[in-house]
Structure formats: C-alpha cells, structure tokens
Amino acid sequence: MATIRPAPPADPIKGRGIAVRIAHRYERDERETVDDGWESPAADDDGERPPPVTQVSEERVKTLLSANDSPDIPFSLSINPYRGCEHGCSYCYARPTHSYLNLSPGLDFETRLVAKVNAAERLRAELGRTGYQPSAINIGSVTDAYQPIERRLRLTRAVLEVLTACEHPFSIVTKSAGVERDLDLIAPAARRGQAMVFISVTTLDAGLSRRLEPRAASPQRRLQAVQRLAEAGVPVGVNVAPIIPFVNEPEIERLVEAAARAGAKSIHYTVLRLPWEVAPLFRQWLEQHVPERAARVMARVREMRGGKDYDADFATRMKGDGPWADLIRQRVRKAEARQGLVRERVVLDTSRFRPPSGDPAQQTLF
C-alpha cells in the first residue's frame, strides 16, 4: 500500500472542489507533474488549460444492494446509483472509494463518474430473491443520488419506481434540490410511513458553499427543498454536516434555526471526518481558501480525534471525542431545544412490502 503523501500544490479550479489527482493508497508508482516549459496543445489563447470536463462511464453491476453492519449507521442496506460525485465536496469522506477503481480520490472522484445503468433491473432481482427480508434502504450513502447527471440518466428515479411499486421503505440523503422532481413517488410512500428525506446543509454562506461544495445546490435552494418536501407531507431532516471548526462551526445555531423554519422535523450532525486520502486533500483546501485559519482548524480536528487526523473507532468517528466534541454536541442539542425539534427516531414501515413480479410491466396491474 502506497504512502499517502501531501497533495501537490495547485491553483483552485473554478467549479471543482479539488484541483489535483492525488495518488491513491493502492498505487505502486508515484508520479509527479513537472512543467517542462513547452506550451500545452490543450491550452487556450491565454495559455491556460481548459477546466476538466465530467466523464461518465457505464457499468452493469452484478449486485446493487450494499449491506452494512456498522453500529453507528442507522441502516443496514444502501443503494448508490453512481460511483463518484460531481458535487465536488472538498471534505467528502467517500472520496477514498475511487481508489478501488484505480482512480484518484482527488479530481477524478468528481470528474470521472460511473453510472450503474442496470440499477433498477438488479434491484428488482435482489428484492425478488427467496427469503429476502425487507429493511429500510438508504439511497445516497457514498454518492449523491441527485447529482447533476441524474437529470439525464434518471437512475435514481428508476430505483424509486421499483421501491415504491413494491411498497419498500427507503430514506434519501442529498445536497440537491433535484429530489423535488420525484415527489410524485416520495410523497405517497411517506404517507404510508415508508419514506423520509435528509437534506445536508453545511453553511448558510453561499460563497463558502461554492468553495466547499462547488456543484451542490446553494444553501437557500436546499432549504427551499426542505420546505417543499415538508409541505408535501414528507418527514424531512437536515444534516448539519460536517461541522468544521472555525469554518462552518460558528453557524451551528443559525443552521438549526433555518432548518426548523423551513420545516425540518429533526437535526443530525457529524464532525469533519478525514479518512485516508481525504486528509491531505482537505489540508490543501484549507491552505488555498482559509490559510489564516488552516493550522487552527487542523489542531481542533486532531483534538477531537485523539491527536490524529482521523480515528475510525465506531464510538467516536461521527461525533469526535473530547471537550470540543462535547461543546459541539451541547450547542446542537440546545439549538434543537430552542426550536422545539424532537429527537425521536422515525421507524419506517416494512410490513407492506410485496416482492416484485417477474415482469416489470405487470407491477402496475396489482
């Protein structure tokens, strides 16, 4: 396994969260980019290279459902219709998953995407297996199921059509207002007690959001999505996540208040997680965008992680440990109480599940 080295210096790329293709931890060879003085044939008239375009490759998967037994995650099954995510969140804990594709967790994660084009077909087959026991399925645990390419490919929509036809419970986590498109499927499922949505709102500062998560919906647009979901009768929670000391941490109370005003029924939070290659990438983001605070941010992160950039212990990886983690927890809970938000966990109904028929067209006949 290769040593994870600091991300090489690079100028920010407009519309991208990370500007470098850092080597992943499984690479045997290390490469270093060197300017040899020759003008690049791909450069424009000003001598600047054009911004990287998003590439999407198709994959026909053998299985779609991913099982999870982590005690700190409230679901046992998940669906991710895509690999990688164009939102480009600089802090994304899922970036290291691109290493398994022999791609960089850096720029490749947000520009070289994989679409599971047979997602609905495989889901139908897996739900129809003998002995399948329904359990609420989370959509979007390591990718955003409503990232920009979903508008064209509609893989998430196809997955929801299978789930709702079978009356199978599901939850969705997203930073996109695109979830509103599927309210015709989500709202009826919610009325049956089989659907809920979580919208992640990291900051109320649109400028900071553009730097942290460049291709996600604006904070106000996400709050508008919360409102529209709530008005449609969908239980909606807001993820104040991740909380980054001295970056969005000062906004905790205002974020909770804004979420409650929009109609959120619950608040959830995590503190910044920097597993594997995410740590050097996020340190570079700090140096590029908030250099005057970079050292303080990392000092507080390590204070909550036992002196390390990250600690994978299930007991603390989501919320951290120590005085700073305790203070954040108290602030979130007190803000919830002031807004009258309850902390009851919603249990989705599995009792109505019906296995899909062999012919997808026949599902609409019953």
Overview in brief:
Keywords: Iron, Iron-sulfur, Metal-binding. Residues 24-55 are annotated as: Disordered. The chain is an alpha/beta fold.
Describe this structure in words.
The protein is an alpha/beta fold. The protein has a domain of 219 residues: Aldolase class I (TIM Barrel), CATH 3.20.20. It has 11 helices and 10 strands. A 7-stranded mixed sheet has the order 2-3-6-7-8-9-10, covered by helices on one side. The protein has a 3-stranded mixed sheet with strand order 1-5-4. It is globular and about 60 Å long. It starts with 54 loop residues before the first strand and ends in a 27-residue tail after the last helix. The C terminus is likely disordered.
- The SS-based structural class is alpha/beta
> How many H/I helical runs?
11
As a whole number of angstroms, the C-alpha radius of gyration is: 21 Å
CATH architecture of the domain at 55-273, please? Answer: Alpha-Beta Barrel
**CATH top-level class of the domain at 55-273:** Alpha Beta
Q: Mean pLDDT across all residues, rounded?
A: 92
Strand content: 5-15%
Give the oligomeric state: single chain
CATH topology of the domain at 55-273: TIM Barrel
Please give the share of residues in helix.
Answer: 25-40%
Strand order of the largest sheet: 2-3-6-7-8-9-10
